[in-house]
Design a protein that fits this description.
4-stranded antiparallel β-sheet; alpha+beta; about 180 residues; Bacterial Protein-export protein SecB
């Protein structure tokens, strides 16, 4: 699916053409003749919290690395007929010997304009493509926050949002409304 350039998105980018989105593109073009578009209108930090509850003791390196647990969640809501807010929530908690070393919570969002996408495919676009665009920026914010907190930068591995979407849809209560 082509992503048209707009202020703040860094220019033209082409999707990787894989999975659900390639299917959406082919399906939409055959139905309407118009190519689907996805524009980034804005990106922003909604909420950021960094906690270092045991400082300065937590900053002293005691040999073993902390255990880090990362949770990721995606939510989308409608703003208008074509505009949507997609929120990417990342929570990372580092603990060592059952003591919290640091805890960082980030809510990073974007406003997206989606046109010429069938309603039955809109949810997949909102919960796969939009977070895929937001993730590198959110990842950098987490790395900077942990570094500024006195720790090595937290580098979160890339996320397969298509797999997360399939898992969310497969859940018995998985009604992920876009």
């Amino acid at each position: 699916m082509a992503k048209n350039p707009s202020p703040g998105n860094g220019g033209d980018k082409q999707a990787d053409g894989g999975g659900e989105t390639a299917e959406v593109t082919a399906q939409t073009q055959s139905q309407t003749g118009a190519a689907p578009t996805l524009n980034v209108l804005a990106q922003y930090v909604k909420d950021l919290s960094f906690e270092n509850p045991n400082a300065p003791q937590s900053l002293a390196s005691a040999g073993q690395s902390p255990t880090i647990q990362i949770n990721i969640n995606v939510n989308a809501r409608t703003l208008s007929e074509t505009d949507y807010e997609v929120e990417l929530k990342l929570d990372a908690k580092a603990a060592k010997d059952e003591k919290v070393v640091f805890n960082v919570e980030l809510s990073y969002a974007g406003i997206f304009r989606v046109q010429n996408v069938p309603k039955e495919s809109l949810q997949a676009v909102m919960l796969i493509e939009c977070p895929r665009i937001l993730f590198p920026f959110a990842r950098q914010i987490l790395a900077t926050a942990s570094r500024d907190g006195g720790f090595p930068p937290l580098m979160v591995d890339p996320v397969d949002f298509a797999a997360l979407y399939r898992q969310r849809v497969a859940e018995p209560t998985g009604t992920a409304e876009a």
